[in-house]
Each structure stands twice: as structure tokens, then as C-alpha cells.
Amino acid sequence: MGTLVCQTCNSTIDHFEDEKVTVLYSKCNCCCDHHTDEEV
């Protein structure tokens, strides 16, 4: 079982099937769409 977590707000975005327990970081639309590419 894998978990997809937002790297900005640390909320769980989704779960996916995997052979081992995995946490992947991404960006969710609820908190990240106001950020620009210029922000680091």
C-alpha cells in the first residue's frame, strides 16, 4: 500500500497499490495552485 502526500500542506492526497509500504510526495490542487514557479 502506498500513500501520496502533499509536500506543501502534508495532507494525504491518495492511496495506491504497491508491493511495499511507500510514501510519495507531490502537490495537491487545494493548497498549491496559488504558488508560482518562482517560489522555492
Commentary on this structure:
There is one protein chain. The protein has 40 residues and is mainly beta. It has one domain. The protein contains one helix and three strands; from the N terminus they run βββα. The protein has one helix spanning 29-32, and strands at 2-6, 12-16, 22-26.
Q: Which structural class best describes the helix and strand composition?
A: mainly beta
* Low-pLDDT sequence parts: none
The radius of gyration over CA amounts to 12 Å
Shape: elongated
Widest sheet: strand order? 2-1-3
What letter string, H or E per element, gives the SSE order? Answer: EEEH
Please, what is the average pLDDT? 77
Integer tally of domains: 1
User: Which percent range describes the beta-strand content?
Assistant: 35-45%
Q: What helical percentage do the residues reach? A: 10-25%
The largest sheet, given as strand count, sense and whether it forms a barrel, is: 3 strands, mixed
Number of helices: 1
Distance between the termini: 30 Å
Counting DSSP E segments of at least 2 residues, the number of strands comes to 3
